[in-house]
Design a protein that fits this description.
Layout lengths: L1 H18 L20 H15 L5 E5 H7 L4 H7 L10 E2 L5 H8 L9 H5 L1 H9 L1 E3 L5 E3 L12 H4 E9 L5 E11 L4 H19 L3 H33 L1
Antiparallel strand pairs: 1-2, 3-4, 5-6
Helix pairs in contact: 2-9, 3-4, 7-9
Amino acid sequence: MKLKSFVVLLSLAAIITATAPTFAAGGGELEHANVNVRDTAAAQRGAQLFVNYCMACHGASYMRYGRLAADLDLSEDTVMKNLVFGDAKIGDTMKTAMQPDDAVKWLGKVPPDLSVIARSRGVDWLYTYMTTFYQDASGGWNNKVLPNASMPHVMWQLQGIQKPVYVTDEAGIETVDELVLHRAGLETPEEYEETVRDLVTFLAYLSEPAQLQRKSIGIWVLLFLAFFTMIAYLLKVEYWRDVH
């Protein structure tokens, strides 16, 4: 009986784990980001987007500019000229210039550090979040994934302005069914999706920089284990030959 209960609980856990990431806080399905952290060019473009659009409010205090340069195949001079603003040095972490007291005064709270946001939220959530901002009836910004988000749409000039199409259920509750482009931005919808994908690629790298080396080392470890298994088998055959 205990074994059967354990199997049932294990099955339920597997179902919840498999389905949970596919749904957003707002109730809709998440779009697949399809990011590849090994795409160095995408991560480089994402780093530039991050410092231009995100670092005014959000920091990445676990990442140093020097580590960023080494991992993304950038020279320290390139990083200092294009990704560092103010008096930060190559060995400093990517901290926002906004002071906590000013953040509370202007925004109501201190914006979260984004060092591990991709591990916390998931890349699909981040991708969908950045593509589903819309302008509601009040003229302010809202988000389909995170309704009533306090963050404004900082990349609206690239995407343009989306408007919601509402549906009403049997209980009379009105929800956002889809978003339509009301005013075009500087990029086409396809171009903006690639832009967001680049940003999310960088955030995925930022959340675990060691994954680049870890995956490379893992391949060599598997090859070693396969080779060692073959050697061990040959030794076993040789040792047991005399026994038989």
